[in-house]
Write a structure and sequence with these properties.
There is one protein chain. The protein is of the alpha/beta class. It contains 24 helices and 10 strands. A 5-stranded parallel sheet has the order 1-10-9-8-7. Strands 2-3-4-5-6 form a 5-stranded parallel sheet, covered by helices on one side. Strand 2, helix 5 and strand 3 form a beta-alpha-beta unit. The longest helix has 23 residues. The relative contact order is 0.13.
Amino acid sequence: MAAQRFLEFCMPSKDKKQWQRDTLEPAVRRFPERREKFQTDSGLDIDSLYSPEDLQFQGLDYDNDLGYPGEYPYTRGVQPNTYRGRVWTMRQYSGYGSAAETNERFRYLLDQGQTGLSIAFDLPTQIGYDSDHVLAKGEVGKVGVPICSLEDMETLFAGIPMNRVSTSMTINATASLLLCFYIVAARNQGVSMDQISGTVQNDILKEYIARGTYIYPPRPSMRLMVDVFKYCAENVPNWNTISISGYHMREAGATAVQELAFTFANAIAYVQAALDGGLKIDDFGPRLSFFFVAQNNLFEEVAKFRAARRMWARIMKDRFGAKDPRSMMLRFHTQTAGVSLTAQQPDNNLIRCTIQALSAILGGSQSLHVNSRDEALALPSEDSVQLSLRTQQILAFESGVSDVVDPLGGSYYIESLTNELETQALDYIKRIDDLGGSVEAIEQGFQQREIGDAAYKHGQEVDSGDRTIVGVNRFTTEEPSIEGLTRVNEEAAKAQVKRLEKLRNGRDGSKVRAALDRLVLVAQSEENTVPAILECVEAYCTLGEISQVFRGVFGEQDGAFTF
């Protein structure tokens, strides 16, 4: 009898239920699990084990749902060989103090092996104020570089050939203005519009949802966004006209599910606006790009990126009738999670960012920024940004993760999680569609409330200790103060104001007035605003002056969504 029981114990289980009953449950009774319930950061239940049965239950079809890399629905990647041909673009986000100081940081990063530039703009630049405006006081150069005119943009790229570097600009309400500054600065270097490449974020809807750096109401803001689409489709063929961002909504407290859903709901609104403006889907679809966060939950993040590719491919093909495969390919930049950085035990941030970067790479990101360990305390030091870049380089060239395409594809857990994230995100999109679309849902405060609820729940879990943050609510230590932190030179703001005053005194006032008057007429009409903005830039009109024209025509959004 004992021998028989032993043989039964040694026989493998025929299915998952039998394994749970005969093998798992007795072990759990002897050694209880750490938690009664395991969940991802989005609140998705995590089973103890995943098997082919889980995928069978979900109805996974390899050919239709996965396929091969470089082929529809692009779940496994938009390129057939991903990083075996070329590793992702290493694009560290930089900008502070002045255009000259930021230029020095750019050149340092390029010398260290960075392969693309990413510009952070200061708050006044983001919301359309010159550095000498009363509302800019105390904010000039603090969270990014101040760009008030063509002169500043030329200084920012002095000694950097603009036909040899791809540039990403994180700018929204004033996106068309900064793009025009960039175009003319390149032209003055002898670089034509068909030679420049990069991305302008130009994602205004998420500003109303999560970030707040909007100027005008949503509908005229959407017009400015579509104007960029139209102009670049005809004149700037290698420029990505928008980077639709889930990053900032996730930073505000959204879950991974909400990040997917709200990002694609906004994307649907942009595509529809472009179509309503007379563009054809395959004329602008290939130039759409996205921006996601990489958070700490490694497997959920990898699954999120894979689900995103499949969702976008199907949205573009089935919802909008795209025919060009490039329109269906989700191309995205990833940044590690700023909100996960802690002032306590800042060296822990190195480990967090490495895990987050790994998730982006395993998920097939086209470009990546890795945050620095000291960013919760101050602007990152030169040593810190070098270490962040080295993190990417070690992952790329020493870890082996770039040697195979979609290395986690086929994992029962990853595939199950990919399916679940997609299903729940699509349910959210349907709810937004039922409200009339993303703009209407924003005006009703839907996304804002959902993110607020998720952020509150996360905060409660941290406060109660249900969610461990190492060094913050567990494993804490007494720490000495950090020395050598980078601070913005207060004199830099004063120098920026003086340069602006000198610019205004030295330019042709009649050309400035004529260009601004022309912009007023264009803004009041249905003409594309970009050519008129270019005229203003060439006349050395300032960012604040151009923005004030639009304020006068469109009005300002005061934060209360009642129209």
